[in-house]
Structures are given as structure tokens and as C-alpha cells.
Structure to design on (180 residues):
């Protein structure tokens, strides 16, 4: 844990910067469960072990940079929840600001886990841990308020209470009502 101090400062920064976008994070996971990823024109592909990064054609980010950032976030996640096998699940960075998932037009979705790929909107490296947690637990967010959310806040600086539906329980506790 101690060795992660420097990267974590950077991760926290990213968490704050992108906090506002997280409200719509990976909505549609339940519906899209079992879906294969849509086709994507790959401009650049790079890898390190079982971590394969694909940059959509037209991306301004170099694959090697995206790989380094992805590896960093994956390591931090893995230190708490264990390494997830990504063989056959490339991490794909799309050129668009938000992901285009059929049925969810208008939602600001920045990360989504398919059966055969993890898609992240342009530059959203900090969303990788959330998607890795889907690789670990499946499409549902059930139980995430107990372990993933507190970790996300403490380590990444990303508050997902509202998005994951944890806010109500916290409010009840605060106002002195019996918690569930
Ligand atoms: Zn999710």
C-alpha cells in the first residue's frame, strides 16, 4: 500500500477532474449484459501481458501512454480486489466524449464492460477500476456500496454514492434514523 502513494495522488486528481461525468457511468450494464462490443476501427494497438489496449482510429492519445495509465489504474485496483484476467478483453479507448450504447442515447456514459471488451470514452483512464469491478462481479452493482464505493472514494477520490444508490443509506445514518 505504501508504494502506491505517488500514483494515488495523480489518481485522486483524475477522480476530481472527471467527477462530474461519473453520474452516468456505465448505465445500461444490466441491459447490455451478454452483449458483444460493437465494431471499432483500431488505429493503434499495444499490450503488456494480458492487458491489451486499442485506440480507436483518430485518437490523439498515443497507445503507449494509454497503456501506461491503464496499467497504473489496473494495479491500484488489483491491490485491493485482486488481478482480473483480461485475456480476450481488450481495453478500447474510443475517440468520442461519451459512449454510444444502443438504447441509451442521451446518457453521458463514459465506460462500459462488454463480454469481449471494456470501452472507455476518450481519455477516461480513471474509469477503468469501475469496469474492472464489473469484470470481477458481473453487470450488476449489487453489493458495491459495501466494498467498491468506499474504496473508490478513499483511494481514487471518486464519489459514486449517488450513482450506485448508496446515498440514501448514508443520509439515513446522518439524520439519526436507524440504518438498514
Ligand atoms: Zn457500473
Amino acid at each position: 500500500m505504501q508504494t502506491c502513494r505517488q500514483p494515488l495522488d495523480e489518481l485522486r486528481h483524475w477522480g476530481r477532474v472527471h467527477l462530474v461525468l461519473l453520474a452516468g457511468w456505465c448505465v445500461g450494464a444490466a441491459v447490455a449484459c451478454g452483449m458483444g462490443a460493437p465494431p471499432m476501427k483500431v488505429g493503434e494497438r499495444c499490450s503488456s501481458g494480458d492487458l491489451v489496449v486499442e485506440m480507436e482510429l483518430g485518437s490523439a492519445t498515443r497507445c503507449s501512454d494509454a497503456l501506461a495509465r491503464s496499467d497504473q489504474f489496473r494495479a491500484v485496483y488489483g491491490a485491493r480486489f485482486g488481478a482480473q484476467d483480461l485475456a480476450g478483453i481488450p481495453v478500447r479507448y474510443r475517440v468520442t466524449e461519451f459512449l454510444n450504447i444502443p438504447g441509451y442515447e442521451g446518457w453521458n456514459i463514459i465506460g462500459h464492460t462488454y463480454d469481449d471488451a471494456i470501452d472507455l470514452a476518450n481519455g477516461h483512464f480513471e474509469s477503468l477500476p469501475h469496469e474492472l469491478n464489473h469484470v470481477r462481479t458481473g453487470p450488476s452493482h449489487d453489493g458495491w456500496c459495501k466494498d467498491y464505493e468506499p474504496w473508490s472514494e478513499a483511494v481514487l477520490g471518486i464519489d459514486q454514492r449517488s450513482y450506485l444508490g448508496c446515498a440514501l443509506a448514508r443520509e439515513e445514518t446522518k439524520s439519526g434514523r436507524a440504518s438498514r
Observations:
- The first helix runs from residue 5 to 18.
- Residues 25-26, 29, 130, 134, 141 surround zinc ion (CB under 6 Å).
- The mean pLDDT is 82.
